[in-house]
Amino acid sequence: MSQEIQARKQLVQAPGKRRSGEEIRSAILDYLHMAAEQTGTGLTAQQIGAAFGIHPTTARFHLEHLVEQGEAVRRRNDSDGQSAGRGRPPVIYSPTSTNHTQEDMISSLCMALEAACPDTGSRDRAALKAGQAWGRALARQSSGNAKKDVSSSMTQTLLNTLATLGFAPVTAEPDSASLYLTSCPFLDSVNAHPIICTIHLGMVQGIVEGSSKAARDKKASVSLKPLSSPKGCFLKVATADNQPRRKGKQ
Asked: How confident is the model at residue 6 (pLDDT cuts 50, 70, 90)?
């Protein structure tokens, strides 16, 4: 955390002096930007309240004010896997400028790729290759994979990485590497640039390949069905030992 943001937090938390709403919101917005830069995701009203020593209801009031001003956006997060019967998923707040910058960057990269590869086949191959390189880099950033078994390591790496990127993954079945991606940080750009989904497929392939040597040896296959369910995109990872075997000729 930067010294400036820490100073703003202390300003809000300092006893004996009433702070204006604008001062508090300015500090909260800085904190949202910091979280977005460090983790790639947003924060809940509970997290903001804990960080600034204010009640979550008060934090939510200021966050909603930022949304009304166009400084922040809100979305619901289903990544905790709770069912609808256990209450609504928490609302995540992110800074608007970060989202716009990310969207602009992705759109620019996609347009460059589309211009360089005018035919669909070469475009998809290039997008897949770029995604795989991205995924392998993300896998290298994950820690502790080598000491875990293959299934646990690969699934946990996927969950952690995709959650950090803002995809809000939910396991389709217990002890399964099949996931629903209930949110997409690039959704606004997907209609104009469908190759984003191909990049994401390659990214997951790269994560699986880079998660451990054992996962590579088992030659895991990855399939992604964009927006195929009311829950979102369906992602399935299968290794050689859990794929159905073909019967040989009698």
From this structure: low
pLDDT tens digit string along 122-132? 999 999 999 99
Of the chain, the end-to-end C-alpha distance in Å amounts to 66
CA angle 161, 163, 164 (to 5 degrees): 65
Those residues whose C-beta lies under 8 Å from the C-beta of residue 34, and which sit 6 or more positions away, are 1, 2, 5
CA 39, CA 152: separation in Å to the nearest integer? Answer: 22
Higher-confidence position of 42 and 12: 42
Q: Is the pLDDT of residue 201 over 80?
A: yes
Handedness of CA 123, 126, 128, 134 (dihedral sign): negative
Instruction: Give the CA dihedral 185, 189, 193, 198, nearest 10 degrees.
Output: 10
Instruction: Give the model's pLDDT for residue 249.
Output: 47
What's the CA gap between 230 and 60, in Å, rounded? 28
Residue 22: which of 7, 38, 11 has the closest Cα? 11
- For residue 175, the model assigns a pLDDT of 65
221 — phi, psi (to 5°)? -105, 145
> Are the C-beta atoms of 68 and 151 separated by less than 8 Å?
no
Q: Is 117 exposed, middle or buried (0-12, 13-18, 19+ CB in 10 A)?
A: middle
pTM for this entry: 0.59
Q: In the block, which residue shows the tokens 């940080």?
A: 185
- Strands, E assignment, 12-164: 72-76, 91-95
